[in-house]
């Protein structure tokens, strides 16, 4: 078991480049594998989750030539060769590791194949509900067999001829939306998914990139079956969910000036910036490349004391993976923060509400836990503690950042899970715990950046917004 020992913050680096976006990397290899021909993928996230998706697509008949690797020898530039929408029957059970995205999106792809395939995953993934994809895919005509009432993995999908459906999502989930759209792509009609709240739209954008038309009308997203994708090279922007850890660290440390380079700025993912600005952080983000997936630099300047806020309503799907680190920001802020409407956190890699509440309390932060969120009273000094992360990468990284602001040492057990989404996190963290080489280099260039103004308003549908 790996362990991280966190010492108090010494330095926020002037610049951090986070690795590629996890959601987009998964989709890039899946959709490229469904094209006939070659797609070059640059800045692929070679984390364990995305490598599971890559291996799965290879097991289903795609080929992958690695053109460039990172310092660990893992692929970052890939040339994928696909053979069209009809895949090859895999010879073995597909291992999705820790990745809900792999299992749920692949369910939609497998639902349309003329064979039976089984997917499994690690202990955590085997506990996560797959009923949410089994239900609509069975309505379309596929057969899915999992374990127990939650239809957990191992999950067997027997595909076949599918019919188009209109499906109102019971939960705001981009994974379920994507599974239904991917299955609908293989029918003869129009499949529509209606979202209760807007979720990340990487599937829609990436399908469009490959020439497959997906139409959004309000909260309804439709795809017509039978459209042939055309291979087209793509570049994966940096992951804003990984950048979020450093946004909070920089926003909470008085003398920092941090530029996060080349971050994905898709508006369905930038909620974390809105929340931090509302909490008083000085942040600005500028889209420099706008086509397909917008990306650009995010600049964070520390200084203001953060203040508590309410996070809830339609904002939740946009910040769902950032809620653990936003809870840490709340602990570092003055006043109370309420996180609500976030019951989905209970069915992630671990129960993230229970995990965050437990660890914050061990660090001396008062937390009240609700079924769908928590209330955090910030502003008390954080105390170093020995913490678990329950094999959950986001919990491990969120509390590594908390440890930077704690008195004494914070130990986090089981940090090998960080490789799920952010290889290289530990190196960036080490920089924060080491004296800066040249403290003079506080970037003057960014002094002129106009920081975003907070409108001080909580999102509609939250307690704050009515006052
Ligand atoms: O579609 C995706 O890539 C993801 C969607 C979200 O899950 P849900 O669809 O379960 O909300 C998110 O939590 C996950 O990390 C990635
Ligand atoms: C929930 C996450 O991923 P997944 O659902 O793909 O396991 C995450 O990365 O925080």
Automatic annotation (TrEMBL):
Example GO biological process: amino acid biosynthetic process
E.C. number(s) listed in UniProt: 2.5.1.19
UniProt-listed PANTHER family: AROM/DEHYDROQUINATE SYNTHASE (PTHR21090), PENTAFUNCTIONAL AROM POLYPEPTIDE (PTHR21090:SF5)
Keywords: Amino-acid biosynthesis, Aromatic amino acid biosynthesis, Cytoplasm, Transferase
Subunit structure of this chain's protein: Monomer.
Phylogenetic placement of the source organism: Bacteria, Pseudomonadati, Verrucomicrobiota, Verrucomicrobiia, Verrucomicrobiales
Boundaries of every Enolpyruvate transferase domain copy: 7-429
Pfam family, one: EPSP_synthase
NCBIfam families (UniProt xref): aroA
GO terms for cellular component: cytoplasm
Protein name (database record): 3-phosphoshikimate 1-carboxyvinyltransferase
HAMAP family in UniProt: EPSP_synth
InterPro entries: Enolpyruvate_Tfrase_dom, Enolpyruvate_Tfrase_sf, EPSP_synthase, EPSP_synthase_CS, RNA3'P_cycl/enolpyr_Trfase_a/b
Binding positions for phosphoenolpyruvate per the UniProt entry: 22, 100, 128, 175, 352, 394
Job description of the protein: Catalyzes the transfer of the enolpyruvyl moiety of phosphoenolpyruvate (PEP) to the 5-hydroxyl of shikimate-3-phosphate (S3P) to produce enolpyruvyl shikimate-3-phosphate and inorganic phosphate.
Gene responsible for this protein: aroA
Domain of life: Bacteria
Active site location: 321
Binding site residues for 3-phosphoshikimate: 22-23, 27, 173, 175, 321, 348
Cell compartments where the protein resides: Cytoplasm
Family affiliation: Belongs to the EPSP synthase family.
One Gene Ontology term of the molecular function aspect: 3-phosphoshikimate 1-carboxyvinyltransferase activity
Reaction(s) catalysed by this chain's protein: 3-phosphoshikimate + phosphoenolpyruvate = 5-O-(1-carboxyvinyl)-3-phosphoshikimate + phosphate
Known pathway: Metabolic intermediate biosynthesis; chorismate biosynthesis; chorismate from D-erythrose 4-phosphate and phosphoenolpyruvate: step 6/7
């Amino acid at each position: 078991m790996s362990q991280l020992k966190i010492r108090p913050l010494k330095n926020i680096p002037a610049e951090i480049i986070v690795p590629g976006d996890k959601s987009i990397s998964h989709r890039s290899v899946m959709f490229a594998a469904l094209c006939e021909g070659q797609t070059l993928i640059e800045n692929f996230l070679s984390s364990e989750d995305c490598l599971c998706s890559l291996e799965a697509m290879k097991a289903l008949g795609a080929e992958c030539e690695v053109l460039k690797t990172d310092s660990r020898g893992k692929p970052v530039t890939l040339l994928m060769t696909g053979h069209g929408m009809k895949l090859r029957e895999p010879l073995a059970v597909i291992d999705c590791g820790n990745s809900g995205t792999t299992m749920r999106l692949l369910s939609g792809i497998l639902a349309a194949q003329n064979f039976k395939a089984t997917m499994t995953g690690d202990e955590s993934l085997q506990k996560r509900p797959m009923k949410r994809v089994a239900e609509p895919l069975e309505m379309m005509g596929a057969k899915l067999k999992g374990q127990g009432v939650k239809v957990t993995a191992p999950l067997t999908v027997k595909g076949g001829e599918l019919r188009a459906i209109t499906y109102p999502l019971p939960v705001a989930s981009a994974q379920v939306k994507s599974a239904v759209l991917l299955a609908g792509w293989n029918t003869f009609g129009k499949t529509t998914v209606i979202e209760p709240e807007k979720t990340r739209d990487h599937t829609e954008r990436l399908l469009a990139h490959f020439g497959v038309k997906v139409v959004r009308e309000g909260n309804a997203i439709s795809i017509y079956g039978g459209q042939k994708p055309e291979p087209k090279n793509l570049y994966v922007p940096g992951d804003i969910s990984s950048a979020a850890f450093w946004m909070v660290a920089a926003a909470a440390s008085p003398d920092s000036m941090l530029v996060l380079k080349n971050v994905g700025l898709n508006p369905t993912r930038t909620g974390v910036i809105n929340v931090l600005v509302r909490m008083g952080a000085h942040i600005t983000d500028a889209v420099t490349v706008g086509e397909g997936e917008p990306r650009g630099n995010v600049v964070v300047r520390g200084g203001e004391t953060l203040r508590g806020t309410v996070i809830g309503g339609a904002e939740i799907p946009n910040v769902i993976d950032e809620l653990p680190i936003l809870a840490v920001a709340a602990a570092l802020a003055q006043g109370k923060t309420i996180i609500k409407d976030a019951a989905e956190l209970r069915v992630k890699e671990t129960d993230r509400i229970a995990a965050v509440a437990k660890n914050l309390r061990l660090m001396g932060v008062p937390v009240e836990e609700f079924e769908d969120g928590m209330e955090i009273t910030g502003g008390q000094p954080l105390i170093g503690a020995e913490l678990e992360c329950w094999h959950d990468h986001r919990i491990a990284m969120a509390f590594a950042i908390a440890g930077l602001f704690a008195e004494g040492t914070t130990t986090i057990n089981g940090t090998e899970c960080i490789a799920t989404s952010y290889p290289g996190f530990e190196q960036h963290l080490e920089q924060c715990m080491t004296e800066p080489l040249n403290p003079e280099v506080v970037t003057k260039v960014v002094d002129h950046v106009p920081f975003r103004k907070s409108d001080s308003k909580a999102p509609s549908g939250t307690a704050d917004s009515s006052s």
